[in-house]
Specification:
The chain has 12 helices and no strands. By secondary structure, the protein is mostly helical. It has 2 domains: about 130 residues, Voltage-gated potassium channels. Chain C (Four Helix Bundle (Hemerythrin (Met), subunit A), Up-down Bundle), CATH 1.20.120.350; about 140 residues, Helix Hairpins (Orthogonal Bundle), CATH 1.10.287. The radius of gyration is 29 Å and the shape is flat. About 15% of the residues are buried.
């Protein structure tokens, strides 16, 4: 009985990427497995949010003993799951030492290892450990494709962003120097030095405007107006850079998927031609 086309395509995909046990474990943990990958990703995301809520609740004064017991139970549950996840990732990693020393490996370790100290009866240690547990929120980045695309966009545009950072720092320095010369004589206590004026430059060029330090001279106010306009222009640049990098990344991802599908279609076409040729040969032998 001839196989349907979707079955042929799936067989081609399996031949192109043989899945060992370690590969399947990694696919499940990363949410790529078609059967349970998404469910595992949702479950881990839920535990991350649960850990964040538990940490926030633990800082509330006057919690009843039952609530404290429940919070400890949640910490134990979440830490146990993250511990299992860490060792599964360590088992499935192509380079185990590389994973253990990588950024995500360290985050995965810190997501559960501090829970070991929760048994110590030292209040300061517990507070520090629970503060470290906030790092679990970083694990959300692993399971969000949108955030991963943004991270890739930052990496792709790192050269342009580095240039922007240098220009921004230079502009901030010039703004601090300028406002110091305009306002130092009128407000020697407020604008006592260029480093002190740097705070005003940051607040003004980023258009935050706390209002705690303001110029009072005519020259200072004119300079501040120009600085605000320059800040609006400069700090709008990263948005354009990141938008361009995101679009380029999307185009590359779609192009890669199209090329992969085209390759599978070509292999499927060759299989169909081979099957047709074999069928013709069998008919020729029968006649």
């Amino acid at each position: 009985m001839p196989r349907p086309r979707w079955a042929r395509c799936s067989m081609v995909a399996r031949r192109r990427r043989p899945r060992t046990g370690r590969v399947r474990v990694l696919d499940i943990l990363d949410g790529r497995d078609p059967v349970v990958g998404r469910k595992v990703a949702y479950a881990i995301n839920f535990l991350i949010v649960l850990a964040a809520v538990s940490y926030a609740a633990s800082t509330m004064p006057g919690n009843p003993p039952a609530v404290e017991t429940a919070l400890v139970a949640i910490d134990v549950l979440v830490s146990a799951v993250f511990c299992i996840e860490y060792f599964l990732r360590l088992y499935a990693a192509p380079r185990r030492l590389g994973y253990a020393l990588s950024f995500w490996g360290i985050i995965d370790l810190l997501a559960w290892a501090p829970a070991v100290f929760l048994s110590l009866d030292v209040a300061t240690t517990v507070r520090l450990v629970r503060l470290v547990l906030v790092l679990r929120l970083l694990k959300l980045l692993r399971y969000s494709r949108a955030l991963l695309r943004i991270a890739r966009a930052f990496r792709a545009a790192r050269d342009e962003l580095t240039v922007f950072a240098v220009v921004a720092l230079f502009t901030l320095y010039l703004a601090a120097v300028g406002i110091y010369h305009f306002e130092h004589d009128a407000q020697p206590d407020v604008f006592s030095s260029v480093p002190t004026s740097f705070w005003w430059a940051v607040v003004t060029l980023t258009t935050v405007g706390y209002g705690d330090i303001v110029p009072i001279t005519v020259g200072g106010r004119i300079f501040a107006s120009v600085a605000i306009l320059v800040g609006m222009a400069i700090f709008a640049v990263p948005a354009g850079i990141l938008a361009s990098a995101l679009i380029s990344g999307e185009i590359e991802e779609i192009t890669g998927e199209i090329e992969e599908i085209s390759g599978e279609i070509e292999e499927l076409r060759e299989e169909i031609e081979e099957d047709a040729s074999e069928s013709q040969q069998e008919k020729g032998k029968e006649t």
